[in-house]
């Protein structure tokens, strides 16, 4: 089997590439409205706090779980920082909701929330709630869709 020779690059014209765009952060005002939601998943209690832009869209996320200093609390804080940074740099909330809803790991269980009766993980509950609260659309039959 013989291979064909590569074409010569002698007569090729180089096209300059545009410089990469640098991300722009849209900061929230120093004083802003927020929503706090208390939750429980299989007895693990916590709070979701969402800071809002003046138009009512989410711009930051804080997560507080009842086990301060635990690995779970540290991971929730890390997720909140990553999501907040993404939101402030233009990543749509729907992207995070699509990626993090329905992820499955412990703790999981019953929630006491009629709209999200069972969560597959704390992360699942948080992002299902965010989707229902901020992205909910009504279907023609009246059921909710996130």
The structure class reads alpha+beta
Q: Give the strand line-up of the largest sheet.
A: 1-2-3
Q: Distance between the terminal alpha carbons, to the nearest Å? A: 55 Å
Oligomer: single chain
The average pLDDT is 88
Q: Please indicate the count of domains.
A: 1
Low-pLDDT windows of residues: 138-146
Strand coverage percent? 25-35%
Overall description:
The chain is of the alpha+beta class and 146 residues long. It has one domain (34-136). Helix content is 27%, strand content 26%. It is built from 3 helices and 7 strands. It has helices spanning 71-88, 93-100, 122-134; strands at residues 34-41, 44-52, 58-65, 109-113, 116-119, 137-138, 144-145. The strands form 3 sheets. The chain has a 3-stranded antiparallel β-sheet. The chain has a two-stranded antiparallel sheet with strand order 4-5. It has a two-stranded antiparallel ribbon with strand order 6-7. Strand 1 and strand 2 form a beta hairpin. The chain is elongated. Mean pLDDT is 88; it is low at 138-146.
Features:
disordered C terminus, single chain, three-stranded antiparallel sheet, 146 residues, 3 helices, 27% helix, two-stranded antiparallel ribbon, alpha+beta
